[in-house]
């Protein structure tokens, strides 16, 4: 894992990347200007690569919370600000995608739906888990196509495909696919127009 | 405090100073310099905090070079995110709960080709100001109350005494003395 970089508040940080991260030319990944060293704190991907970032991306204050089987792929010329990406499977983001402040993208439920299974899973996650295996839960890949704009504080949940050129409004909770070039708003997000 | 006076807050947990164009009344409470990590206003007064008003820890003022924020007398801003490239005015006695987002601009055009033009030029830098995206002023009325984690979007005017429920997303004007809630927010009743 990476060494915590020397963090100065208000400054861009350039820490060391985990070995299974591929970062394209002219791309930067920074921490939040206070929690600068947390970007990869919960990056546990055992896949190689576990994170691919294209060229010319600005990822400012992004947290990569990636499980052992998770992988995140990000295209060229993206701009993310303070975004939470949580992956247990596959999150695939196209080129020229903008994601606003405090948006969240997840590709899994992270725990089983069945209450008994969930108790077993909760124990496995606890300090008393003692290496007991986790219980299976639903994962479905998320795809964000090219030229998408995702507004602040919105959430994209598992299995969603956001079509090319779509706009996800601030605060939207997206649980269904978003048609290309549409504008969605609300909880659950609904199409309110075209762009 | 007028421009030019003590710029370091007493007992500030975050190392840093308050920008010179931030003005606050001696009776106001300004919690920490952390709130100004993204404050880039170049206007003569970029933030004014009124008499007895509070700008509490955890608030972030993400203000661009042309942005100006006004916080009225006795208003309480708990831990809001204020994204401002134009004018945002928070009225006297207004209450803003935690993690509320108030923004007067998306900072990005809705037109994908316009966004692409900017994105291709960034090459791993922070955009300072994005041309062609006009901010639309936001006004939070006197005595309005905004519940936690609500979003107030560009161009919205929240009327005097209105109440916005927690986690609402407000996309249109809120009439005075109404209670709105939901995503998108709808009028529930009159207060």
Secondary-structure element order of chain B, N to C: EEEEEEEEEHEEEEEEEE
Largest interface: A-B, 36 and 35 residues
Helix amount of chain B: under 10%
Largest sheet properties of chain B: 11 strands, mixed
Rg of chain B over CA atoms, rounded to whole Å, is 17 Å
Residue stretches of chain B low in confidence (pLDDT < 50, at least 5 long) are: none
Note the total helix count of chain A. 1
Q: Tell me, what's the shape of chain A? A: globular
Strand order of the largest sheet of chain A: 2-4-7-10-13-16-18-19
Tell me the total number of β-strands of chain A. Answer: 19
| Unreliable stretches of chain A | 1-13
Write the layout of secondary structure elements.
The complex is a heterodimer of chains A (195) and B (191).
Chain A: E1 21-23, E2 28-30, E3 51-53, E4 58-60, E5 63-66, E6 72-74, E7 79-81, E8 84-87, E9 91-93, E10 98-99, E11 104-106, H1 115-125, E12 142-144, E13 149-150, E14 155-156, E15 161-162, E16 167-168, E17 173-174, E18 182-185, E19 190-194
Chain B: E1 22-24, E2 29-30, E3 47-49, E4 54-55, E5 60-63, E6 68-71, E7 76-84, E8 87-90, E9 95-103, H1 112-122, E10 138-140, E11 145-146, E12 151-152, E13 157-158, E14 163-164, E15 169-170, E16 178-181, E17 186-190
Tell me what you see in this structure:
The complex is a heterodimer of chains A (195) and B (191). Chain A is mostly beta strands and 195 residues long. Chain A has one helix spanning 115-125; strands at 21-23, 28-30, 51-53, 58-60, 63-66, 72-74, 79-81, 84-87, 91-93, 98-99, 104-106, 142-144, 149-150, 155-156, 161-162, 167-168, 173-174, 182-185, 190-194. In chain A, the strands form three sheets. An eight-stranded mixed β-sheet of chain A has the order 2-4-7-10-13-16-18-19, with no helix packed on it. A six-stranded parallel β-sheet of chain A has the order 1-3-6-9-12-15, with no helix packed on it. A five-stranded parallel β-sheet of chain A has the order 5-8-11-14-17, with no helix packed on it. In chain A, a hairpin with a 4-residue loop joins strand 18 and strand 19. Chain A is globular and about 50 Å long. The model of chain A is unreliable at 1-13 (pLDDT under 50). Chain B is mainly beta. In chain B, the strands form two sheets. In chain B, strands 2, 4, 5, 7, 9, 11, 12, 14, 15, 16 and 17 form an eleven-stranded mixed β-sheet that branches. Chain B has a six-stranded parallel β-sheet with strand order 1-3-6-8-10-13, with no helix packed on it. In chain B, strand 16 and strand 17 (186-190) form a beta hairpin. Chain B is globular. Chain A binds chain B through residues 9-10, 26-28, 33-34, 56-58, 60, 77-79, 96, 98, 100-102, 147, 149, 151-153, 165, 167, 169-173, 183, 185-187, 195, and chain B through 14-16, 34, 37-38, 62, 81, 83, 101, 103, 106-108, 110-112, 115-116, 119-120, 122-127, 149, 151, 153, 167, 169, 171, 183-184.
């Amino acid at each position: 894992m990476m060494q915590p970089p020397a963090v100065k508040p208000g400054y861009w940080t350039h820490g060391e990347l985990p070995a299974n991260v591929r970062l394209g030319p002219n791309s930067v990944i920074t921490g939040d200007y206070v929690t600068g060293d947390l970007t990869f704190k919960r990056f546990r991907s055992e896949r190689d690569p576990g994170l691919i970032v294209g060229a010319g991306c600005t990822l400012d204050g992004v947290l990569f919370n990636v499980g052992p089987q998770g992988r995140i792929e990000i295209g060229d010329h993206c701009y993310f600000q303070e975004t939470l990406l949580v992956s247990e499977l596959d999150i695939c983001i196209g080129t020229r995608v903008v994601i606003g402040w405090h948006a969240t993208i997840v590709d899994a439920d992270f725990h089983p739906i069945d209450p008994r299974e969930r108790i077993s899973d909760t124990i496995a996650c606890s300090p008393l888990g003692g290496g007991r295996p986790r219980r299976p839960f639903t994962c479905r890949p998320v795809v964000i196509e090219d030229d998408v704009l995702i507004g602040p504080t919105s959430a994209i949940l598992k299995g969603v495909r956001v079509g090319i050129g779509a706009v996800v409004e601030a605060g939207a909770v997206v649980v269904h696919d978003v048609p290309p070039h549409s504008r969605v708003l609300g909880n659950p997000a609904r199409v309110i127009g075209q762009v | 405090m007028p421009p030019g006076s003590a710029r370091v807050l007493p007992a500030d947990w975050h190392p840093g100073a308050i920008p010179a164009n931030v003005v606050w009344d001696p009776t106001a409470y300004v919690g920490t310099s952390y709130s100004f990590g993204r404050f880039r206003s170049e206007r003569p007064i970029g933030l004014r905090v009124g008499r007895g008003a509070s700008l509490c820890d955890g608030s972030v003022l993400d203000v661009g070079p042309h942005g100006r924020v006004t916080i009225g007398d006795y208003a309480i801003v708990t831990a809001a995110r204020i994204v401002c490239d134009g004018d945002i005015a928070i009225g006297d006695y207004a209450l803003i709960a935690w993690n509320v987002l108030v923004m007067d601009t998306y900072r990005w055009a809705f037109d994908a080709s316009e966004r692409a033009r900017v994105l291709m030029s960034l090459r791993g830098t922070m955009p300072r100001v994005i041309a062609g995206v006009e901010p639309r002023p936001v006004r939070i009325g006197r005595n309005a109350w905004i519940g936690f984690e609500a979003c107030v979007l560009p161009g919205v005017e929240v009327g005097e005494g209105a109440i916005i429920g927690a986690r609402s997303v407000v996309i249109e004007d809120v009439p005075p003395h109404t209670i709105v809630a939901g995503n998108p927010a709808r009028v529930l009743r009159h207060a």
